[in-house]
Amino acid sequence: MSATETLPPPAGYDVVDRSADGETARGADHAVATPAGARPSCAHCAGPVPAADVDETAARQFCCTGCRTAFAILHEHGLDQYYRLAEQRRGPVQATGRSFAEFDHEAFQALYVRRTPEGLAAVDLYLEGVHCASCVWLVERVPMLVPGVVRAELEVRRALAHVTWDPAEARLSAVARALDALGYRAHPFRGVRAEEVRRREDRAMLVRIGVAGAIAVNVMLAALALYSGEHGAMEAQYTRFFRWLSMALTVPTILGPGRVFFRGAWGALRTRTLHMDVPIALALAVGLARGVENTIRDAGPIYFDGLATLTFALLAGRYLQQRGQRAAADSAELIYSLAPSSAQLLERAPDGDEHLVEVPTEALLPGMVLEIRAGDALPADGVVERGASTLDLSLLTGESRPVAVAAGEPVYAGTVNLSSPLRVRVTASGEESRLAKILRQVEDGVQRRAPVVHFANRLAGWFVAVVLLLTAGTLAYWWPTDPTAAVDHAIALLVVTCPCALALATPLAVSVAVGRAARLGIFVKGGDVVEQLSRPATLLLDKTGTITEARTALAAWRGPDAVRPLVLALERDSLHPVAEGFRRAWPDVAVPAVAESTHTIGGGIVGRVAGREVVVGSPRFVRERAAGGDDVLAAAESMAGRALTPVLVAVDGAVVAAAGFGDPIRADAPEAVRQLRARGWQVGILSGDDPAVVAAVGRALELPPAACTGGASPEDKLRAVERAAAGGTRVVMVGDGVNDAAAIAAASVGVGVHGGAEACLATADVYLMKPGLGALVQLAEGAERTMRVIRRNVAFSVAYNVVGAGLAMAGLLTPLAAAILMPLSSLTVVLASWRSTTFAAPAPAPESPR
Amino acid sequence: MSVLFLVVPLATLMVGLAVWAFVRSARSGQLDDLDTPAVRMLHDDAPPPAGPPGS
Description:
A: six-stranded antiparallel beta sheet, 48% helix, B: mainly alpha, 2 helices, elongated
C-alpha cells in the first residue's frame, strides 16, 4: 500500500503518460526554462511549460509528469494550501519513481530505524529539495498521505525529517515513495550514532551556560550592592547578608558548570602541558577557597562576582567555538547521506525465474549478481558478467572521459555506469572494496597530519607560564611584610589576568567569520584553517570538477544548422554523455520523429529521421559509413588538437558536420586564478586527466606550463603535495574526488568543492557549497581579515592583562577595579569581533547553491 | 531596609525557578532546533480534509 500507487490522478487533469520518454527527455525539457513569457506556466512549480506539452483543453498546465503527479496528490488530499504558502517554488518536481524497497530490508532497518517506547518505529531521513516554509508544512502533512504514519517533523536547517510510524500499519518505503512523489528524495541519515552523542553534549553545554549566566548576573547584582555600600554606607548585617548570598550562589556555579575547567586542567597536567585551563582552574580554586574563608571570617575581599562572571564568559566562548565547528561537520554528514543506499540484486528462483530485488548496499556479499542500470553508481567491486558499457571512473582516477568495459573485466565501487545495463558479480563489498581501502589511506593521512598549533594556543602556553611566575613572584615579594596581603594580591593577580578576553578573542572572531562564510556557502571546519589561509601559500587545483564543470559539453560545432534537429532526434533517448551534451547545448530545437535507430557501443548511432539516413558517432564509425566532407574532417582534426573529443555527423552518406566535446572550464575560473595570483598565491594544477587536456586548461588560465601536472594517480597527487610541503611551504589542495582525498588530507588545508565525493568532503577542512573558484578568492580575503581581527583582539586583551597584572602586583587593585575591568575587557572583544566585516556580504549570486 | 531579608531570598527563588525551567526545556530537546519552529508558526491550522485521507 503506497500513497502513489493508491492515488489515481483525479479526472480533469487528464494525465498524459510521458514516462516513456524517460528521465533524460524530461531533463532536456527543463533546460528550456526561459523567463515566463507568452507560454503558460506550470500549475505546480510555476515554471514555463514546453510548447509540446501545452494542452489547450485542460484547465491547468504542467511542465512534466512529476509536477502533474505532485499536484494530483496534493489536490486529492485537500492540501492546496501549499500553493498559498509556497512563496518561492523551485523548479519542476523530479520524482525518481523508485520503489525504495531497500528501506524495508532488515539490514537497513537494523542500521537506521529506532524503536520508540510506545512500540512505534522512528527514522531520520535526509531530504533533497527542502528550501522554504512551505516544505515544512508539506512534509509535516505526510501522516495525512500515508496511513500508519504517526508523526513527521522537518528540521529545516539540516533538511532532516524525523518520521515516526506504526510498523504494523505502514512501511517505510511507502513514506519514502510519498516524499519522492512530492519532489523530496529521501536518504537515510548516516550520522545517527554520532548524532545522539552530539545532542547530549549540546544540551549539557547549553544547561551549563544557562545556569552559569543566571547565577553570574545575580552575583553581580549582589556585588553592586556591596560596592555601593562600601566605606560604611551600609549596616554590617546587610553587608554580611550579601556576602553570604554571593557565596551561596557562586559555590554551585563553580562546582557545577565550572567543573569542565578543572577536568581540562587535570588532563593538561597529566600530559605535562600548559593549557589555558590551568590558570583558570587555579584562579577558580584559590579564589573560591579564599572567598569562602573571608566570608566566614567576615573580613577581606570575596572575589565571588569575578569568579561567577569568569565562568560564564569562558563557557560562552567555548560554546561559540563548538557551534562553528558543528555546523561544518553537519553539512559534511548530510552530504555523506547522499551515497547510493541500494543495489539491484538478481535473485534466481528454484524454477529458474530471475527477478530483481532492491537491497541495501550494506547487505551485499561476494558472489551476488547485481544489475547496474545506466546512470547508477556501482555499489561494490565486481566482475562484469554480461553486457558492455562505458564507465565514468572519475571518482577513482580523475579521468573525465568515459572508459569502455566488457564481460570479464573488473569494475569498482564508486564508478558510474553511463550507457547500458550491466550484470556484475560482486567480488568485494563494503570495507573490502578498493574505494574503502583508498578511504582508509585517507584516514591515515588525516591522522598523520601534524597538528597545527593555534596562534592563540601558542600564545596561551607562554601566557600561562608568565602568569604563574608572576603570581609566585608577587607572593614571595609581599610575604615577608604581610602574609595576608600577599595572598590577596596573588589572588587579585590570578583573577584579573584570567584569560577571559584572550580566551574569547580567537573563538569569537573565528565563529563570527565561520558563520558569515557559511552564509556565503563556504563551510570552514576548524579555526586553525582560517590562520593557514590568511597568508598566500601554494594552491594546487584539481582539474575535473574543480576548474571544469565535470561534464561533457559541446565546445565546438562546425556544420549547417539544419542538421541539428536530425542529430537531436537520434540522441534524444540515449544516456551517453555526448547525447547529454547535444541536448544541453540545443535545448530549444524542435525534434522530429525517429523512424528507427541502432546504437553501437563505442561507435555511434545510425537511424532514419524525417526520411533521411543519419549517422552520428566517432570519426572512425562515421567514415566507415559515409564519405566526403574534407573541410569538416579538417575541423575535426583541429578539435582533436585542442584536446576535444570529435564527433562526426553524416546525412545520406555524406559527412556534413563535426562537433567537438570537452569539459568546459567554469566561467569564473580564469578571473579567480588571476586574483589569487595577484595576492601572491602560487597556483598550480594537479590532475589525473590526460596531460594534453591539462596543458590546454593551464593555457586558458594563463598558468605557466611547469605548474600544470597531468596524468597523476591518487598516489602521485599525494606525493606531489608532500613534496611541496617538505619544502616548507603551506599547501592548499582543492579537489572534489576520491582521487584527491589522500592529497587533500595531506595538505596543510584541504578544500572540497561542490558536488564532490564524500571521502573528499570528510577530509577537507573547507567545503565550498557553490560551484566555481570564486569562493576561493572570498575565502582567502575573509581569512586575511579574520586574522587581522584576531590579532587586534589578542593585542587588546594582552594590553589589558599587562595593566591589570601591574596594578595587582603593586597591591593597588581593589576588588572594585577588578570587577569593572574584567567585564569591560570581554565586552570590548565581543563588540570588536561582532562589528568586524570578515566575510563580505554575498554579491547577487547568479546560481543559488542547493 | 530589613525587607531585604525577605525580598532577596524570594527573588533568588524566582531565579531558581527560571533556571529549573530552562534546564528542563534544554534537557527535553526544546532548544535543539531553533529554526523550524519559527517557520512552523506561520502555518494556519490544517483545513478540514477534502476527502478521507489515503482512500
